Amino acid sequence: MAKTRSELREIIITCLYQIILYINNDMDKQVDNVIGENCPIKNEFVNESVHGVLENFEELTDIINKYLDNWTLDRLGKIDQAILLLGTYELLKTDTPHVVAINEAIELSKRFSDDDVKGLINGVLDKIYQEEVEA
Q1: What is the CATH classification number for the domain harbouring 59?
Q2: Fewer Cβ in 10 A, N or C end of the chain?
Q3: Domain count, the chain
Q4: Per-residue pLDDT band at 17 (split at 50, 70, 90)
């Protein structure tokens, strides 16, 4: 049975979480292997999203850090980092409607983040949309 986009986003943040752990521990990351372990059936949305976030990692991180008041992305939990990176990528680099990108990130944060971080993710993505997309 085919997975919904919401279910696929959960796979994407799982992949990003693992890759962030590898990066932080100076371990070799085989991106396609991580994707294959988490999504055994090839899926273009998962593949493009994971690779897209990684190809734009520095730019996305800089933009997120710009809107994190007195905080930086690398100080957040790894899963929260993954959610923010995916949400920001979808807002800035894809044709996903902004409402969908933000709502999906919020739904992921409801499942995987604590209450304080849920609000932070919502606020940062809203600011990114207003300042970077709408400006």
Answers
A1: 1.10.940.10
A2: N
A3: 1
A4: very high
